[in-house]
Design goal:
Elements lengths: L5 H7 L27 E5 L4 H11 L11 E6 L7 H4 L2 H10 L3 E3 L2 H7 L2 E4 L7 H10 L4 E4 L6 H13 L4 E4 L6 H7 L6 E9 L8 H17 L3 E8 L3 E8 L4 E7 L7 E6 L2 E5 L6 H13 L6 H19 L5 E2 L3
Helix pairs in contact: 6-7, 7-11, 9-11
Organism: Chitinophaga flava
GO molecular function: nucleotide binding
Protein name: Dehydrogenase
Length: 332
């Protein structure tokens, strides 16, 4: 594991706003109106801070009306079975979830009986396919937190199963929805001709390098560039990676993954009408708004094809590393 500490980053990137960061204070802050039928949210996996932060946002007394009344009512603890950094987070997160009055159940089956939609929050992408299958079979809409899986093969299997059971699903990093990226997506600089982004990129031995944390930057890059990448080259050192993607229309996008030194998220997008700086992370709210809109409508804000291509991009980057920086054609 690199000198980056995922939990240290989460503590640094503190959420601001009423009702957030207030664990341990009066429970009345989160004693809002009980969820109505159809609005009950279940959580799978308490090995990530997202489970707590999303619950605080949805269950606050003065929760944003744009959340459409969705509230977390039950949670299943099991996430990763063997990643130490994830397992160490469970006791603290479990205590905070209980403080919010959220029921703890002993199985995914029990969770599905008590809830209407699912936040699959397990930190370990390797368990996502196994945990998502019963959700699909139950016909419940599900958001799968990043990474959607720990391999391209499992990613394809997840979407194939969702299609089989006709259940909407999507996966995303919160970084995709930061304001500076959304402004570019809405045409601020015209057609995007290229992009350079940077991201913290600590690694975890159970996942391909970029899948564990660098995926945040990959989401940023693809949110700016869109699909169509077909060639990937990765230059790597002990402390840093630079991954270059060439799109089929000739555009170039780069990702700098930082494992040591000052960290943050950012970059620049280049367009026909200007150059836009890409800002840092500030809040989970834009992502939670997208999730609750998805729960309400069943329309995923990120298409399966884009998520699949991002996973192919990261696998190609790993293959390029193994080949000492050779260019790799993506398997999409």
């Amino acid at each position: 594991m690199s000198s980056y500490d995922r939990r240290k980053f989460i503590r640094t990137a503190t959420i601001t706003g009423v009702g957030l960061g207030l664990a341990g204070r009066a429970s009345s802050l989160f004693a809002g109106t009980p969820a109505t039928p159809g609005k009950r949210v279940g959580i799978i996996g308490l090995d990530t801070s997202h489970s707590v932060e999303f619950s605080k946002m949805l269950n606050a007394v003065n929760a944003d009306p744009a959340y459409n009344g969705f509230k977390v009512t039950a949670a299943y603890v099991q996430g990763s079975k063997d990643i130490t950094s994830s397992l160490e987070m469970v006791p603290g997160n479990l205590a905070k979830i209980k403080e919010l009055g959220i029921e703890i159940v002993d199985s995914i089956a029990a969770l599905l009986e008590k809830t209407d939609v699912i936040l699959l929050e397990s930190n370990d992408g390797r368990v996502h396919l196994e945990q998502a299958l019963p959700v699909f079979k139950a016909g419940k809409r599900v958001f799968i937190d990043k990474p959607i899986a720990a391999s391209l093969a499992d990613t394809r299997a997840i979407f194939k199963a969702a299609e089989k059971y006709k259940v909407p699903v999507f996966s995303s990093s919160a970084l995709r929805f930061i304001d500076s990226i959304q402004q570019v997506a809405q045409g601020k600089i015209g057609k995007v001709t290229g992009a350079d982004v940077y991201t913290p990129s600590p690694t975890e031995k159970t996942h391909p390098d970029l899948f564990w944390y660098g995926i945040h930057g990959v989401e940023m890059l693809f949110a700016l560039m869109g699909t169509g990448c077909h060639r990937v080259t990765r230059i790597t050192s002990e402390d840093m990676d630079v991954v270059t993607g060439v799109w089929k229309d000739g555009r170039i996008g780069t990702l700098r993954g930082v494992r040591k030194g000052p960290y943050g998220f950012g970059g620049h997008a280049f367009g026909e009408k200007g150059i836009a700086p890409i800002g840092d992370f500030s809040s989970y709210q834009p992502l939670v708004l997208q999730i609750t809109a998805f729960f309400q409508t069943g329309i995923p804000p990120v298409k399966p094809e884009e998520t699949i291509e991002m996973m192919a991009f990261m696998e190609a980057a790993d293959e390029s590393k193994k080949k000492k920086g050779a260019t790799v054609t993506m398997n999409v």
